[in-house]
Write a structure and sequence with these properties.
Length: about 425
């Protein structure tokens, strides 16, 4: 109680109608930092220092020093009147919060932050929750844990394929498959009946199939039935698909149903591993590839197929708060006219693009896989580039694109971080 009395003396508290702290002065920080230590009943507690500023609260919890804006603290209140815990939705009208709001009282114990607002409303925050959800906490975390790989790393990991029956019929099999997929960006299912119908059943186990200009399930041979190099027997350099979509497709499924000939191995390259090497060796190149927007374009006039798609975005896409890479958009076949930056940036961008291409084309980054009937491959199209060597003979391939949100949703429901 002596701490509260000290507050009233220092701030001139008057009246006998109740002990309400007055509106905070312009910078009461040094006083309240000392008082925070008084409020702590456990000197060894990780939350033993906090300081109030004119527009935010500075709070140290463990090794994390958080700076929490008062408007943010009011907006994220989890009380019953502000947040519907059943639907996990905000009930508070954010636009009704005074942008100059300040708490009338602040208290911190070993586990909880308490704020009393001018209208008497009390907000409570668990310190663990704040440390996790603050900007400073998010900077220390990754959204998607991954294992970056080259061919040797992946082969030495001996990542197992999942049996089709286990994948389709058990949560354990599905979870193991998704864990492999999340960590490496690729995963295999074995003993799949080599038909388009059975491949469709496989895909729908993890996601809704994304319908595109190619339909839901695509099925092709080298008959050039579409205006795309993929419908030939030619080799394909490493690339990601649908860069010409504003949101490139998230996951791609491949299943070779038949091949009577030679060649045709599939090439896989971890784009994030290559980008990480660029970041280490030439961070200015990484930054430029993450900032300069490009246009990718798909123009098709073959038979009854008429399409003109344009997608815009940088080669590398990162979360701005922690610089974590989440999408690579790389396809030299479909890159449109480069006219999105002035001339003094163009040459620097080409140097950066060359640095990334050099990493992507290093032989030790190339994982070659022979797809055979019964072995289905799932590829994270936002991370792993794929290609193909030239082939001879008759080759049938089927597959589809999956909605990324639904794959990650399935993974989270099984307890995985995704």
């Amino acid at each position: 109680m002596w701490c509260q009395r000290l507050v009233w003396l220092l701030w001139g508290q008057r009246g006998s109608t109740g002990r309400r702290w007055p509106r905070l002065p312009q910078d009461p920080g040094p006083i309240l930092t000392a008082l925070a230590r008084c409020h702590s009943t456990a000197p060894a507690s990780p939350c033993c220092a906090w300081q109030l500023h004119q527009d935010h609260l500075e709070l140290r919890y463990g090794s994390t020093v958080m700076r929490l804006d008062f408007v943010w603290l009011r907006d994220h209140c989890r009380s019953a009147s502000c947040y519907n815990a059943k639907t996990n939705q905000r009930s508070l009208d954010t636009a009704s919060v005074d942008l100059g709001i300040q708490p009338q009282a602040v208290r911190v114990d070993e586990t909880t932050l308490f704020l009393t607002w001018p209208d008497g409303h009390v907000t409570r925050y668990g310190l663990e929750w704040l440390a996790k959800n603050s900007y400073e906490g998010q900077k220390q975390q990754v959204m998607h844990p991954r294992i970056l790989w080259n061919a040797e790393i992946y082969q030495q990991a001996q990542v197992p394929s999942i049996d089709c029956r286990s994948f389709l019929e058990t949560d354990e099999g599905l979870k193991e498959f998704l864990q492999n997929f999340l960590l490496y960006g690729i995963a295999f299912v074995e003993n799949v009946t080599p038909t388009k119908e059975d491949t469709k059943i496989l895909a729908e186990r993890v996601s809704i199939i994304r319908e595109t200009i190619y339909g839901r399930m695509w099925y092709f041979t080298s008959d050039f039935s579409r205006g795309d190099t993929a419908y030939t027997k030619l080799a394909l350099d490493r690339h990601t698909d649908t860069t010409y979509f504003q949101e490139p497709c998230g996951i791609q499924v491949f299943h070779c149903l038949k091949h009577e000939g030679t060649g045709g191995r599939t090439l896989l390259v971890d784009g994030f591993h290559a980008a990480e090497q660029v970041l280490r060796q030439a961070p200015e190149h990484f930054e430029l590839l993450a900032k300069v927007p490009l246009k990718h374009e798909y123009v098709e006039n073959v038979g009854g197929c008429h399409n003109h798609m344009i997608g815009v975005g940088p080669v590398l896409n990162v979360y701005p708060w922690n610089n974590e890479l989440y999408l690579i958009r790389y396809n030299n076949y479909d890159r449109a006219v480069f006219n999105t930056v002035p001339h003094d940036v163009v040459r620097r961008w080409y140097h950066a693009h060359r640095a990334l291409t050099t990493e992507l084309r290093r032989p030790d980054n190339e994982l070659w896989v022979k797809l055979k009937p019964g072995k289905a491959l799932f590829v994270d199209n936002w991370r792993v580039l794929h290609g193909r060597e030239a082939f001879t003979g008759y080759r049938q391939l089927c597959g589809c694109y999956l909605t990324r949100d639904d794959v990650l949703n399935t993974a989270r429901l099984l307890g995985l971080q995704a």
